Amino acid sequence: MARIFVVEDDAALRGELMRLLELQGHVALASTAFDRIADEALAADPDCVLLDLKLPGDGGHAVCRDLRRASDVPIVMLTSSDNEFDEVMSMNLGADDYVTKPYNPAVLLARIQSVLRRAARTEPPARIEHKGVVLDVAKSRVEYEGRGVELTRNEFRVLHLLMENKGAIISRQELMMELWQSDAFIDDNTLTVNVNRLRKSLASIGVPEGFLATRRGQGYLV
């Protein structure tokens, strides 16, 4: 799993975040040397940095700027502020995502997974194959045993994410983050509708029913 560096001056919250990450199998790292925290984070060689906006000294924006000048490491900002200016400033300085406190642990973990996936991506293949099912990325089309069907935008996004991570369970939260980049105003049933439509499209070309499997309480996989 990933090495994640936590920059949070509240000791209780820092400990809570580190325990949450460790329960997911990540390696959680931290430092309280806030006068040189960017250097501390870079020296740890993390896969992702969770960065609190309100820090002693110059604050999280300055740390974000210093990290981005020296590295492409994914940065997820954490803040109790719902000020749009802070969010815009963070993204302009190079943050990859912005999560407000109090955060939903499942949503935070999904956003971390999303930025980690984006950072790990290389040039995407033109076609992805799994169990005889072929996804044509350029044409948003899926084929099976000589038959094919074009997918809607959301059908394609769901299948693309699942086939990029074939054999791994992708949570509903991760799928919603990937599709809409936000957990706000998204009815959980909307994702179910899109998955069911995708299953019908797959069935229309003869893909076996069990290809797109549900793991109750966990998510989906192919």
Describe the structure.
- The structure is a single chain.
- The protein has 222 residues and is α/β, with parallel strands linked by helices.
- It folds into two domains: 3-120, Response regulator (Rossmann fold); 127-221, Arc Repressor Mutant, subunit A, CATH 1.10.10.
- 42% of the residues lie in helices and 20% in strands.
- The protein is built from eight helices and eleven strands.
- The strands form three sheets. Strands 2-1-3-4-5 form a five-stranded parallel β-sheet, sandwiched between helices. It has a four-stranded antiparallel β-sheet with strand order 6-7-8-9, with helices on one face. A two-stranded antiparallel ribbon has the order 10-11.
- Helix 1 (11-23) links the parallel strand 1 and strand 2 (27-30).
- Helix 5 (105-120) packs across helix 7.
- The radius of gyration is 20 Å and the shape is elongated.
- It starts with a strand and ends with a strand.
- 29% of the residues are buried.
- The mean pLDDT is 88.
- This is Response regulator.
- GO terms for molecular function: phosphorelay response regulator activity; transcription cis-regulatory region binding.
- Residues 3-116 form the Response regulatory domain.
- Pfam families: Response_reg, Trans_reg_C.
